[in-house]
Amino acid sequence: MNNLSNISESYLKNLDSYIKELIVRFGSGTEDNIESMNHIELGYLGGNFGIKIKNKELFVSDIMNALEDMEEPPQEVKEYYPDITEREWQASTRLSTLNLLLSERLIILLFENLLKKSEKQIKPVDYNKNKIINNSMFFGNK
Description:
Structural class: mainly alpha
Order of helices and strands: HHEEHHHH
Strand content: 5-15%
Shape: elongated
Largest sheet: 2 strands, antiparallel
Number of strands: 2
Number of helices: 6
Strand order of the largest sheet: 1-2
């Protein structure tokens, strides 16, 4: 288990808001991207840490794993990409799951770095209002 199991609930909420802000900034501040942040949260399930569906005992990576079990692409995907093969679909869903799991591990590393700083230095961010993040908190002063 990593050091994150010892962090306070308020600290986790503040870090959750920072991660959501970073995701929105990375993907762009579209209405869909911002709205999706209202349905996820960082949290623990059974001693494991990750991105989960808000207020539910369900990791987003578990949903992605379920998509991997679909041997054929859904009809909607076939309509966009009629030439996609089953193998290409399976590779795409697997890669999506691996990217999500990698993101969760990077979040853990980021959090562990932030834990070295005082909790008083971490302030909540309202990602819905696209406030500016002090990037030096994440990447150090330059």
